[in-house]
From TrEMBL:
The gene is glyQS. Its main location: cytoplasm. This is Glycine--tRNA ligase. Residues 2-355 form the Aminoacyl-transfer RNA synthetases class-II family profile domain. Belongs to the class-II aminoacyl-tRNA synthetase family. InterPro entries: aa-tRNA-synt_IIb, aa-tRNA-synth_II, aa-tRNA-synth_II/BPL/LPL, Anticodon-bd, Anticodon-bd_dom_sf, Gly-tRNA_synthase/POLG2, Gly_tRNA_ligase_bac, GlyRS-like_core. PROSITE patterns: AA_TRNA_LIGASE_II. Its EC number is 6.1.1.14. It comes from Rubrobacter marinus. Homodimer.
Length: 454
């Protein structure tokens, strides 16, 4: 992990937030390469889930919603983690994690009373900081960030920063069905920031208090939900593997029935085997039934049924929800792609990112700063730069320039050399195979497009 964190900083992927002030815990900023990479992840999700499908539309709802939304969804009452305070160090921990780390038992879903009893009785459970065993009773802690709208800080002005993007979709179900021509089965997709006041954030960008989500609610006729759930499990698995994640580092995790969230009939996570924390969730794919729409119908007084004109049936749709986090996914892509290897007797660090995910798609190198090589290279760069992020580099030896791009994950380097003026050809070098291909200048754009989308 230290290696990845240092690498991310050195190459401008991720910085500690407010670093010149000593940093703020669990907040990170995405640097020049990181922002490109995260955008590519979100774009690939959007392209595959929205643009390439006729049955999914997009949405961008507000972060601050009517507070009743969170009463209806159950977040006000139950979006809690169990908090335990150590009286010896004054630190606060997630009680389930404290129990699990010390005993190996599975504490998820236990009540506060059960956890308090276990912590009191099991000597193996100690304050990780000072080894103390004097804990206050476990209590639920609501993870929603609270703030106020307007100038008066009074209880009736309390609002929340959304803890998930999904509710913005449910409350717009009626708007979308009335203003577009969608027909069940169909989905509404959304990406955006979510906020959770996590008790113990950590593991770099894996768990932060401010993060992004990519969620899609796919509305189906009740009775077809189990089939659609299977369908989306397969689709989402294929998304990762088609973007180059090693399938050996991926697995499905089926949530046991008794541990399901209050809204779910079945939930399966896609997990990634992170070297620093083992199998961990990248994405949850849940059958949320008709819970949310029914709750919002009840709390708002609106009718949120769907009328199927084909069958003349009226029903509240069931929902299959793939819910993913681009920050976590970016960490998985980085870890999966990072290699230190020996090539021709030299060592190199390389990020073997899929071209669609790589921050920079190609670099253009003039072999020399002299004419006509540099002018030809500039012209080529100017011609291609509107298509995707392209990098121009004319400093240092060609070997160094390659190594810099290998580290940044750039899949292709295009070199203009002394022959180019004569034969009107350039060389495209492949980051992974190191093979070099001679291509006419006029064919470079098409060749790169093919390689990148391949
Ligand atoms: P966890 O059990 O790890 O807290 P969760 O089950 O609460 O996650 P969901 O509510 O299913 O997470 O959210 C969907 C996705 O949003 C997660 O799979 C993850 O990728 C992302 N996500 C959730 N919480 C965070 C966070 N604190 N930081 C970064 N990403 C997050």
């Amino acid at each position: 992990m230290d290696k990845i964190v240092a690498f991310c900083k050195r190459r401008g992927f991720v910085y500690q937030s407010s670093e010149i002030y000593g940093g703020i815990r669990s907040s990170y900023d995405y640097g020049p390469l990181g922002v490109e990479m995260k955008r590519n992840i979100k774009e690939e999700w959007w392209r595959r889930l929205v643009h390439m499908r006729e049955d999914v539309v997009g949405l961008d709802a507000a972060i601050i919603m009517h507070p009743r939304v969170w009463e209806a969804s159950g977040h006000t009452a139950t979006f809690n983690d169990m908090l335990v305070e150590s009286r010896t160090s004054g630190r606060r921990y997630r009680a389930d994690h404290l129990i699990e780390d010390a005993t190996g038992a599975d504490a998820e879903g236990m009540s506060a009373e059960e956890m308090t009893k276990i912590i009191a009785e099991d000597d193996r459970i100690k304050d990780p900081v000072d080894g103390g065993r004097d804990f206050a009773p476990v209590r639920p802690f609501n993870l929603m960030f609270e703030t106020y709208t307007g100038p008066v800080k009074s209880p009736e002005n309390v609002v929340y920063l959304r803890p998930e993007t999904a509710q913005g979709i449910f409350v717009n179900f009626k708007n979308v069905t009335q203003t577009t021509r969608v027909k069940v089965p169909f989905g509404i997709a959304q990406q955006g920031k979510s906020f959770r006041n996590e008790i113990t954030p950590g593991n770099f960008i894996f768990r932060t208090r401010e993060f992004e989500q990519m969620e899609m609610e796919f509305f189906v006729e009740p009775g077809t939900d189990e089939e659609w759930h299977e369908y989306w499990l397969e689709q989402r698995w294929n998304w990762y593997t088609s973007l180059g994640i090693n399938p050996e580092n991926l697995r499905f995790y089926e949530h046991p029935r008794e541990k399901l969230s209050h809204y779910a009939k079945r939930t399966v996570d896609i997990e990634y085997n992170f070297p620093f924390r083992g199998w961990s969730e990248l994405e949850g794919i849940a059958n949320r039934t008709d819970f949310d729409l029914k709750q919002h119908a009840q709390f708002s007084g609106e009718n949120l049924e769907y009328f199927d004109q084909g069958t003349n049936k009226r029903y509240v749709p069931y929902v299959i929800e793939p819910a993913a986090g681009p920050d976590r996914i970016m960490l998985a892509f980085l870890v999966d792609a990072y290699r230190e290897e020996e090539v021709n007797g030299e060592s190199r660090t390389v990020l073997k990112l899929h071209p669609r995910i790589a921050p920079t798609k190609a670099a253009v190198f003039p072999l020399s700063k002299k004419e006509p090589v540099s002018t030809i290279a500039r012209q080529l760069y100017d011609e291609l730069k509107g298509d995707y992020r392209l990098f121009y580099d004319d400093s240092g030896s060609i070997g160094r320039r390659y190594r810099r791009q290998d580290e940044a994950g750039t899949p292709f380097c295009v070199t203009v050399d002394f022959e180019t003026a004569e034969d009107k050809q350039v060389t495209i070098r492949d980051r992974d195979t190191l093979e070099q291909e001679r291509v006419p200048i006029t064919a470079v754009r098409e060749r790169l497009q093919g390689l990148i989308s391949g």
